[in-house]
Specification:
The chain has 467 residues and is α+β, with helices and mostly antiparallel strands. The chain contains 17 helices and 11 strands.
Length: 467
Amino acid sequence: MSIVAMMSEDTKTLAERRGIALTLPPKECGTGRLPKRLLTPLIKVQKLQRGLYLKAKRKEVKRFYSLYDKVYRWDVLSESWKRIRANKGCAGVDGKTIEDIEAKGVKQFLKEIQIELKAKAYRPQSIKRVYIPKPNGDKRPLGIPTIKDRVIQMAVKIIIEPIFEADFQDCSYGFRPKYSAHQALKKIKGLLRKGYTQVIDADLKSYFDTIPHSRLLKLIAKRIVDKNILRLINLWLKAGVVSEGAISRNSVTGTPQGGVISPLLANIYLNELDKIWKERYERKLNAHLVRYADDFVILTPRQPQEALKTLYMIIGKLNLSLNEEKTKILDMEKDRLTFLGFSFKKIYDIRRKARYIISFPSAEAMKAIRNRIRKLTSYRIPEKVGVIVSRLNPVIRGWANYFIEGNSSKWFGQLRHYTENKIRRFIQKRRLSRGFGFGIYPDQYLYKEIGLYYLTTNRLRLSSERF
């Protein structure tokens, strides 16, 4: 007898992906549940998370007293390691990389973590501060914990995230399971089409550096009563930051960008804004909030001054502040909104004799991808063109997968021609030839011979089908 009838579609997919047989001997069938040997760590963790979510969803005031022992369960630690390994990332202050841990033995590494957590002897190390460039030329500070700290943070996140997911509002789209930036963009576009054309483009001032620890911990404690979980979170919040050889500590505010658990903590704190707006002001002001992490907009069909005044009041009560230089009111009848890399604009179609909203890659997004392509195709790189293309293709494909939403054909065409010219120029420079090589290296050569990824907004067309 086949076990397929007893399995959900998700379980069947997982079993097939991992090469697990979907048939069993007769004595193991007819029990109505999946045999233990088919319960992988991922399936066990998902089952645990589902149970926690349902308990939290059934009762808004439900508090969880015993969670710490679940953090060091072997299936939770194993799944936590897999997620950290998939995210890759560089070493923390201890210098240990993913490869170093694998060389020594992942099982031994996780066993040591389990023993340390059981004994309640774990203490996080300081966070390594690095800076990454922003499109506007500034630098964004990131805090990188050690891999060990990241694994434990991920384990705690696996346990507590479903509990807070039960409380989060549907206007929040950032760093949440089954939510995405594309959903936020679709929501904005839908509201703009319905006439919500007065937009408050809000920007929080140094949000991740200004989250008050005491208030954040109080919000967490409304659901999590387990003192050991709260102790871990408090330790991570107060961990020192190593920058240029010196350790600095801020025991009052802030959670470092780059920490595994930081996005969840940020969402827990800003959920207060979401709840207050949803329950008190969305209908009263006819104004909709759309938030992705600390980036958010408010859309309304009428004068937005009252909504902005209300926003200032709520943000002040949360001990946060808006960046007054970047927070602005836009009239979409004449202005352009940029959010999550997309620009929204209302245009007039002469043929249809109507105005409608389009979305496309912003100027900043186009500048950033051109800079990346230019660096990858520099003729000073001592590599063959095939190697350059193999490095370039994942970058172009990833960019295309994100910006394929909306009305992006024109911008895809511009970037396609830019990339083609850069590759031709690279080949000419490496061969010490003059010119751009338009006649020598036609499109057929670029896409068919050396395998350059073809940028197109047609989801059904493969990169090489054109040729």
